[in-house]
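FORM 12-B: Structure-to-Sequence Request
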């Protein structure tokens, strides 16, 4: 089966997902009800995967999985003639976070051998099953409990896990990914709408993604209340039990330690130079010169997934509200997965 046919199948899969997302529940057919059951099952297995967040992830995939965008993406790479088996150890921090790796392997004319995350083990197999139906059974993939027969591997894990994976796969072609996070740079002349969009970069998926902003840079004289005001659309996040537990715990720790922090009853701002912040907390620092920010970003480049800003002095910045909407050629850790797959 050639890659062109796989592209057409993937577009059909995207259209099928979009049809489901566009339907009123009163008009569901048997396939739609199965989709609903998978959404519910995923939320039961992992309460962070609310049905709302799963649908958000699906909508974002539908927005890029059209024929023109897929073909433009693939046009940069040669077509592989020799099919290889590529092991995938997937993350599970946000819904369908490993889907890009799976698509990349299939559209590179390879066979994905997939070890699912225990946190995200229902939706991806469901979509692959549907894709295989669309392909009349010709789509090749495997879902395994342990990788033991592969030619290359792409693995995602924590920093500690990554060290183990690098050793374990040292004799194989591999991409090993670690923890990353994202930062936001406020210039001071943002509109209220732009700050609301920044809030989505912070709170979508409860802030669990590597593209979620956990560290802010704020001009020295910027009124911090403007930041809190922009968060109000996400106030209901505190009603999620697991998020609320994190908020209560971190707030208690700060109070016991007599730390200074700003609190609006669902998220805390804490002045701190650390890049990574606890869930329900956003670290921030004041700056006088944008060069200070650029230096921090350069020094921490290997731990930063993306930078959200409208400041033209920040190279390759992502627009406010777009952190969770990467294009097909935006790669995790800035490592070109398709180029890797073209030379294994």
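FORM 12-B RESPONSE
SEQUENCE OUT:
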């Amino acid at each position: 089966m050639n890659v062109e046919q796989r592209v057409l199948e993937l577009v059909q899969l995207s259209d099928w997902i979009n049809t489901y997302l566009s339907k009123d529940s009163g008009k569901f057919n048997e396939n739609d009800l199965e989709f609903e059951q998978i959404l519910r099952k995923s939320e039961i297995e992992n309460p962070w995967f609310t049905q709302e967040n799963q649908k958000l992830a699906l909508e974002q995939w539908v927005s890029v999985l059209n024929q023109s965008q897929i073909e433009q993406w693939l046009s940069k790479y040669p077509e592989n003639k020799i099919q290889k088996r590529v092991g995938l150890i997937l993350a599970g921090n946000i819904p369908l976070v490993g889907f890009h790796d799976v698509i990349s392997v299939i559209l590179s004319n390879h066979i994905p051998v997939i070890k699912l995350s225990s946190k995200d083990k229902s939706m991806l197999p469901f979509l692959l099953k549907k894709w295989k139906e669309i392909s009349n059974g010709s789509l090749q993939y495997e879902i395994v409990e342990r990788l033991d027969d592969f030619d290359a591997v792409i693995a995602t894990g924590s920093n500690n896990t990554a060290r183990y994976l690098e050793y374990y796969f040292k004799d194989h072609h591999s991409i090993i990914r670690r923890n990353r996070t994202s930062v936001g740079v406020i210039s001071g002349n943002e509109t209220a709408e732009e700050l609301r969009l920044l809030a989505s970069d912070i709170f979508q998926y409860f802030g669990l993604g590597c593209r979620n902003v956990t560290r802010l840079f704020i001009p020295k004289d910027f009124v911090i209340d403007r930041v809190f005001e922009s968060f109000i659309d996400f106030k209901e996040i505190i009603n999620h039990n697991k998020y609320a537990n994190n908020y209560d715990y971190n707030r208690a720790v700060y109070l016991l330690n007599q730390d200074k922090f700003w609190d609006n009853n669902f998220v805390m701002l804490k002045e701190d130079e650390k890049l990574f912040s606890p869930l329900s907390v956003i670290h921030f620092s004041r700056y006088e010169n944008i060069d200070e920010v650029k230096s921090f970003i350069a020094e921490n480049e290997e731990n930063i997934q993306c930078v959200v800003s409208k400041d033209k002095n920040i190279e390759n910045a992502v627009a406010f509200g777009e952190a969770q909407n990467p294009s097909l050629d935006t790669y995790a850790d800035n490592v070109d997965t398709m180029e890797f797959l073209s030379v294994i």
